[in-house]
Design brief:
This protein has helices at about 35-55, 105-110, 140-145, 225-235, 265-275, 275-280, 365-370, 415-425, and strands at about 10-15, 20-25, 30, 85-90, 95-100, 125-135, 150, 155-160, 170-175, 180, 195, 215, 240, 250, 265, 285-290, 300-305, 320-325, 350, 375, 400-405. Helices cover about 20% and strands about 20% of the residues. Strands 4, 5, 6, 7, 8, 9, 10, 11, 12 and 13 form a ten-stranded mixed sheet that branches. Strands 16-17-18-19-20-21 form a six-stranded mixed sheet, covered by helices on one side. The protein has eight helices and 21 strands. α4 (about 225-235) crosses α5. Residues about 1-30, about 50-65, about 425-435 and about 440 have low confidence and may be disordered. β5 (about 95-100), α2 and β6 (about 125-135) form a beta-alpha-beta unit. The chain has about 450 residues and is an alpha/beta fold. The chain is elongated. The relative contact order is 0.04.
Length: about 450
């Protein structure tokens, strides 16, 4: 028997739950090809799968119970007059909340609603707990089967002890508790942990957590130490940091070359960690200085060294916040790349001993307005476009601003000599502009 895919097939309609289901039959006024029939069955199968999936995952009457991390609002707490400070949630299966507790009232509350490791509770939120120390070891009997543990908005100074070895916690939220210490072993046995929220505490470092991919929020910890945070980035690259824009750390005297404590954005520490990976091929990058601005957040500025690499053009793009670039001893013929947006923060440009023939590309760039050092010694500059340098304001930053064009065989005309006189009169510090130029003629 052969089957023609374009041969019309007669179908009979059956109605199930207001959905049309069509099956093979010998009588009907509906005619579909075999391919049309297959499309209908695929759509029905897809709907059935969605129904089964949603039925198995969603808790009755409350979709919030199926969130990745269990969290309940204050209005879900037991009424203040209730002596039992814990209760099971009617609309969330296997979930409970405890509020306004200390060691005694928490133990009493868990007991009065029979929350133990044997009654199948998988989600627990403890709000506004007041402990000097929360001991995980003494709570193992209750926490052993918990999958979602949330302890927030309380006053807890220290987390000590450890979870049981076969704990099932996949999401742990300890945010907003004023925690300043978490023992090294406390979270190490959470082998199924995938989400960890430690935001809004007083931690100085990232605690020891299991190897593998973990989503971590450690934002708004005002005492976080930069050197320890950078060490975490180094040894735990698989950790995903959330809420990076609100994560800051404190520098210390042993962090790079800092002499005083400064607040540094996490993104800057991350950029420092990834600096060499983001550096231009064949070049080396290092931190140059910390830019302390009263109106802006502190930023790490970068120095990139590309000297002696046989480059024929300037490297593009530069790493973010590159302030110093050395491309000496190459075969570069033009500096047109200085107009590239990645050069906007550049302040020191060293391009000695190349084949550069003109400074004209400097005109209109941010560099020529903001530079500290421009060094183009031992190049092939013959004609000096003096108008590019005419409007440089040396007096504004005269202790740092330097232009070096020595050992170029520049044609000396009236404009060139006038530029030399004007610059020399402004400050002797930039006398190197023309001091070592070799005139072709006068």
């Amino acid at each position: 028997m052969t089957l023609d895919l374009n041969q019309p097939l007669k179908l009979t309609r059956y109605f199930i739950c207001d959905n049309v289901v069509e099956t093979f039959s010998g009588r009907s006024d509906v005619t579909l090809t075999f391919l049309d029939m297959m499309r209908v069955w695929y759509e029905i199968l897809y709907i059935i799968i969605l129904i089964i999936k949603s039925t198995s995952l969603l808790a009755p009457d409350d979709s919030s119970c199926s969130n990745q991390c269990f969290y309940q609002l204050p209005e879900m707490c037991p009424p203040p007059k209730d002596t039992c400070r814990c209760h099971l949630l009617a609309d969330c299966q296997k979930a409970a909340i405890c509020c306004d507790v200390n060691h005694f009232t928490l133990t009493e509350g868990l007991a009065c609603v029979n929350i133990t490791s044997n009654n199948g509770i998988e989600a627990l939120h403890i709000r506004n707990a007041t402990f000097d120390t929360f001991n995980l070891t003494s709570s193992q009997s209750v926490l052993r089967l918990i999958r979602y543990l949330t302890i927030t908005d309380g006053n807890i100074s220290r987390i000590e002890g450890e979870f049981a070895k076969h704990s099932r916690v996949s999401c742990l939220n300890l945010s907003s508790n004023h925690i300043n210490t978490i023992e090294n072993r406390s979270l190490a046995t959470l082998y199924t942990l995938s989400v960890l929220d430690l935001s809004h505490n007083n931690l100085t470092e990232v605690p020891n957590i299991r190897k593998g991919s973990v989503s971590l929020n450690i934002s708004n910890n005002k005492n976080l130490i930069c050197s320890k945070l950078k060490n975490t980035l180094l040894i735990r690259p698989e950790i995903t940091f959330n809420n990076e824009n609100d994560t800051f750390c404190i520098t210390s005297k042993d962090f790079v070359w800092f002499k005083t404590a400064e607040i540094l954005p996490f993104l800057q520490v991350k950029a420092m960690h990834e600096l060499q990976n983001n550096c231009h091929h064949n070049c080396s990058c290092e931190t140059y200085r910390l830019n302390l601005s009263p109106e802006k957040l502190s930023t790490i500025e970068v120095a990139m060294n590309c000297s002696g690499k046989k480059f024929h053009s300037l490297p593009v793009p530069l790493p973010v916040n590159t302030i110093y670039l050395d491309v000496s001893n190459n075969k570069i013929t033009s500096i047109k790349e200085l107009s590239d947006p990645s050069y906007q923060n550049l302040r020191n440009f060293i391009a000695d001993n190349n084949r550069i023939s003109s400074i004209q590309p400097l005109e209109g760039t941010k560099f020529i307005s903001n530079f500290n050092t421009l060094s183009l010694q031992r190049n092939d500059i013959r004609v000096l476009e003096t108008y590019v340098l005419d409007n440089i304001q040396f007096e504004r930053n005269y202790n740092q601003r330097k232009v070096k064009l020595g050992f170029n065989k520049i044609h000396c005309d009236c404009n060139t000599m006038k530029l030399k006189v004007d610059m020399t009169e402004q400050t002797n510090r930039i006398f190197t502009v023309l001091k070592q130029m070799r005139p072709l003629n006068i």
